[in-house]
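Today's session is about reading a structure prediction critically. Students often jump straight to the picture, but the first step is always the sequence itself: look for stretches that repeat, for charged clusters, for runs of hydrophobic residues. Only then move on to the predicted structure, which in these notes is written as discrete structure tokens rather than atom positions. Here is the chain we will use throughout the hour.
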Amino acid sequence: MKTSDIKQHFIKELQLGNMTVDRTGAKTIELLGASFEADAPTIFGTVNQDYVNTEIDWYLQRSLNINTMRCDTLPAAWVQTANSAGEINSNYGYLIYSDDNYSQYKNCLHELLSNPNSRRATMIYTRPKIWYEWNANNKNDFICTNTVSYYIRSHAVHAVVQMRSNDVVFGYKNDYAWQMYVLKQLTKDINNRQKTNYEIGTMHWQVQNLHVYERHFHLVS
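Below is the predicted structure for this chain, in token form.
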């Protein structure tokens, strides 16, 4: 299945009126257990490259506070996620690069350098304690990405992104940009260390709940 198949699914669901209602009372179209090849940077809408650059820059800061974002206006989605002090859980750079979160990137790199055939090279984003931390101090941030696993196969480095929840319109395109950034960096680091020439492989996208919000229904076409 490709991104084009996902697009057609949501177009059909909207035409049929197959909708659910989320906790805010807004209608959504959804797909449970989605699994497809992420072969395009967007499914609906266009990529805002300026925002992508801002978010990746903030991730690379490893900051758990949205007020450190280098932008004129803080994104509404992050403001709604943070508590009054700007604190969040889901800075993905922190989650994979920080020693405080057990050095997920470094561990995966070491694993693939040690054993290119490994099935253990997994960066773990979420954690069991998220049940107690997602709303601590009035946050609203239950980490959306569960894990990302990497495989060296057929002379390429491939990624399998596994998510709890993913908004098709804004979420997918921004998460895709981040995951592609990490995949390219990991491949580069492996090649530099091993003097190999692995290519960027396939990115597989697996989501427990893939959805489009009512405010974006006009984009589903």
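Discussion point for the tutorial: The helical segments are 3-16, 49-61, 76-81, 92-97, 104-114, 130-133, 170-194.
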